[in-house]
Specification:
The chain has helices at 36-53, 79-98, 116-126, 128-131, 147-152; strands at 19-25, 55-63, 66-73, 108-112, 144-145. The protein has 153 residues and is an alpha+beta fold. The chain has a single domain (19-152), classed as Transposase IS200-like (Alpha-Beta Plaits, 2-Layer Sandwich), CATH 3.30.70. Helix 1 (36-53) packs antiparallel against helix 2. The longest helix has 20 residues, at 79-98.
Amino acid sequence: MKLRQSPRIKDFTYVGSFVYNLTFVTRAREPRFTSTTLVNLCLGSLKDASSKYGFRALAFCFMPDYLHLLVAGENESSLGDFARLFKQLTGYRFKRDYGAYLWQISYYDHVVRREEQVDSIANYIWDNPVRAGLVMNRLDYPFSGPRELMEQA
């Protein structure tokens, strides 16, 4: 039986002051992120995991079946620990409240290599609902943020 390969970069520690473009997909691509209640639950967990492991959310968008997230770490920030805690907190609370699994196994990551890419990646994330035809203006989509950064862009 062939084991699934890890999507992580071999020989890269994912620890330090890096910026990551992340995608977390819902189990079976179920459209879970359609209610303010669940998105707020996840935002609380995002705040908790970010605080514990030294990350800052630069952009996020909860599409119906995935979360697109841009985060920046500090000197000792561990992406693996952050992602693990975020998925554990949200997954446990979702299972408790809804009786089902929230996430697919693992997540997709991209290490942002140049500072100038951060703004274009944030704009790409915030424009997801527009490209999907959910809204005409990204500021009309309720599940994106941080709002203060979106309004400045």
